[in-house]
């Protein structure tokens, strides 16, 4: 996906009704020795980092339970849409663990340190509407009979992104992600570098021409 220029948005969904991702299989984990557990969790963390590093926008469509590593998967995405009835939580402390695939880092960056500590310390599960109220998800929608309301809303969101200039969207994502990790002055410099890369693009010229000619722009990602 990273190298396919035709890909504009990636939506993560589950085809298992009622479950987005239930996290690690603890029965499988129990059969591992300490070294194997460390290696397994490191691979999971690397996977989440690869998802977070995808250059295009990513959306998690949470139509059911997103627990432990399942919520960490959703947190690795840029945007999250949840059914109001969906259950999510970093429940690791209830099993003698702590989040190990990015949860301790991405959750506080998403909802703030205080809420993240509360959710991780207690291992509490929350529903989609609660997640929306604290900013954990971008949208919470009532579940439908097919059980894919979050997926349908995610598709609508993806279709809002699709017409926009692909390279500009990629640079916007890069500027936000890199800028959030540094001080504001360094972030401004990162924005400037990303903007400079966008200036010579054909899409920028198309956007300006379309504005002058009062027509919708036709972006090609070049």
UniProtKB/TrEMBL annotation:
Example GO molecular function: enoyl-CoA hydratase activity
Top-level taxon of origin: Eukaryota
Keywords: Lyase
Pfam family, one: ECH_1
Any one GO BP annotation for this protein: fatty acid beta-oxidation
GO cellular component, one term: mitochondrion
Transmembrane segments: none
PROSITE patterns tied to this protein: ENOYL_COA_HYDRATASE
Family as reported in the entry's similarity comment: Belongs to the enoyl-CoA hydratase/isomerase family.
PANTHER family recorded: ENOYL-COA HYDRATASE DOMAIN-CONTAINING PROTEIN 2, MITOCHONDRIAL (PTHR11941:SF44), ENOYL-COA HYDRATASE-RELATED (PTHR11941)
Name of the protein in question: ECHD2 protein
Organism: Calonectris borealis (Cory's shearwater)
Lineage, uppermost ranks: Eukaryota, Metazoa, Chordata, Craniata, Vertebrata
Gene name, Swiss-Prot/TrEMBL: Echdc2
């Amino acid at each position: 996906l990273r190298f396919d220029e035709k890909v504009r948005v990636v939506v993560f969904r589950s085809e298992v009704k009622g479950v987005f991702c239930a996290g690690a299989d603890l029965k499988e984990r129990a059969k591992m020795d300490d070294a194997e557990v460390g290696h397994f969790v490191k691979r999971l963390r690397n996977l989440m980092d690869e998802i977070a590093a995808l250059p295009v926008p990513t959306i998690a469509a949470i139509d059911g339970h997103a627990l432990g590593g399942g919520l960490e998967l959703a947190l690795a995405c840029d945007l999250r849409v949840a059914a109001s009835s969906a259950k999510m939580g970093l429940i690791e402390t209830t099993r003698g663990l702590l989040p190990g695939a990015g949860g301790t880092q991405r959750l506080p960056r998403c909802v703030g340190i205080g809420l993240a500590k509360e959710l991780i310390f207690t291992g509490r599960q929350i529903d989609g509407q609660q997640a929306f109220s604290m900013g954990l998800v971008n949208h919470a929608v009532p579940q439908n009979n097919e059980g894919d309301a979050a997926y349908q809303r995610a598709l609508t969101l993806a279709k809002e992104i699709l017409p926009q200039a692909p390279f500009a969207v990629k640079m916007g994502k890069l500027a936000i992600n890199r800028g959030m990790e540094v001080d504001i002055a360094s972030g401004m410099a990162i924005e400037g570098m990303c903007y400079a890369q966008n200036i010579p693009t054909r899409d920028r010229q198309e956007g300006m021409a379309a504005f002058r000619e009062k027509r919708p722009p036709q972006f090609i990602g070049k």
